[in-house]
Amino acid sequence: MPAVLPALGLPVLGALADELLAPGLGPVYAACAVLGAALAALVSSRAGWWWVVSGAPVVTLAVAGGVDCLARGDRYRGAGLGTEGLKLVSSQFPWMLAALAAALLAVGVRTLRARRPRRG
Predict the structure, then answer these.
(1) Which of the two ends of the chain, N or C, has the fewest CB atoms closer than 10 A to its terminal CB?
(2) pLDDT tens digit string along 11-53?
(3) Residue 8's closest CA among 46, 51, 40?
(4) HEC string of 56-81?
């Protein structure tokens, strides 16, 4: 369960902080989403790497969608649901990809460190 905390907690905190600073999701959210994915991969077990890596883009989009819907729920009614949903997915795609890359990088670092012979 410790991998869930950075994977979900950091993006939610970043999204809430960005909404409080200015309307819309910005750099604080993006940094927290990427950092959360990397930290989750670093603290998860080897068996949990698959879930962290495959879940990083989904968590990034879900948190962004949830916070945006809570902040601007009137835009998501009727025909606006499809339009706003498409805008959200297209605006979050770079951060979804960055979170996936950060999780994969963290898994790669852990794998390389495990293979290196220990000295001492």
Answers:
(1) C
(2) 999 999 999 998 888 999 999 999 999 999 999 998 889 999 9
(3) 40
(4) HHHHHHHHHHHHHHHHCHHHHCCCHH
